Amino acid sequence: MPSHRSTSPARPPAPSPAPSPAPSPASVTTGYRDLLRNREFSGLYVSFTLTVAASTLSGFALGSLVNQQTRSPFLTAVSMYGATFAMVLGALTLMSVADGNRPRRTLLLLQLASLAGVAVQAIPGLPLAARFALLLTLGFFQSLGTGTRLGLLAEVVPSSAYAPARSLMNITSGGTAIVGFAAGALLLRHLSPQGVFVAAAALTALGAAVVATTVREHSIRLTRRPGLRRTWTTNAELFSHPGSRMLLLNLWVPNGLIVGCEALFLSYDPGRAGTFLAAGSAGMLLGDLTVGRLLTADRRRRYGFALRLLLAVPFLLFAVHPPVPVLVVAVFLAGAGFAATLPLQEQLLEQTPAPIRGQVQGVESAGRMTCQGLGAALVGGLAQWLAPGTAMAVAAGMSVAVTILCRPSRRTGPHSRG
Predict the structure, then answer these.
(1) What's the pLDDT band for 354 if we cut at 50, 70, 90?
(2) CA separation, residue 278 to residues 91, 105, 246, 340 (Å)
(3) How far apart are the first and last CA of the chain?
(4) Across all residues in the chain, what is the average pLDDT?
């Protein structure tokens, strides 16, 4: 699924000799062209784009296949977002590999593992139980890959360029998802879901090749061996900090509930699900462009609360079944609300010591993706008892409630943890 929700695709890291200060509102904004002149950033950016495209195609193909075979809203939703359930396992066990001393090699190995998993999905007649098992395995490796990729991102761009770099990647994620959903719907008219899986595997392989040819190895890392103990120690430190806990709650729960709403598009209106998904991705693209590129860091924080409300409120309309064009506009506006993750991620980065940024940002991403999977399961489960539109409205109301009741302080200072 789209990593922006995913993605967003979300979240950069890495070890340098001392913690890097987050960009101040007065800092000069790095342009997208400046970033793309950096060969290593361009390599990470292109490989990320290809990974999002592959994920979009494979998720849409699997969701369509499961919907055709089962006609179950719950199983369809879980099939589209099921990989996210295993991401929390990566965050809790081996996420410290994101700060290992050979991140390029680690990223390549994880991308090759993803390639193998997508290729196996293309086998005709594969039992649904095997497909779901593959989803969980891929989710585990994807969570580690996200942390590693973001750790490399923090090393190949200066800290002042972090927000623009993330913004550009999120924008591209939205645009790629739009194209991916449209392409997936088109391909499924001419190919079987297995054929679409083959296309996704080819994109995954190309992404790995781009990393191999553009990104160099970064070895200025901690010498401590990554593993279970180091992962647990860092996670315990992260969750012991009240400011970090509140930021993670706001990054994970509202986002996950709304992705759960999106997981019901196929059940709500199979013929227009692609249109709804594309509208949401287009809104996300516009939101990330506006918030990440045009606003200062201070304004991003100031508007973060309103953006989290915008993420959920439009989905309340699904309870009353207005005309489809109205719903398309509502989904587009809600998509813009996903840009609320950027100011929250900046705050989290401020509080994170440089040597563990890869793991912390990987945990943030894995937790958000896991909550998306839980949101899909929860809202899909509601739709077994309620109409899909009603279930979506209930989830949107829950998202609004969490946003209002758990608003983080804007005065969270940089780095209260050592």
Answers:
(1) low
(2) 30, 34, 31, 19
(3) 35
(4) 78
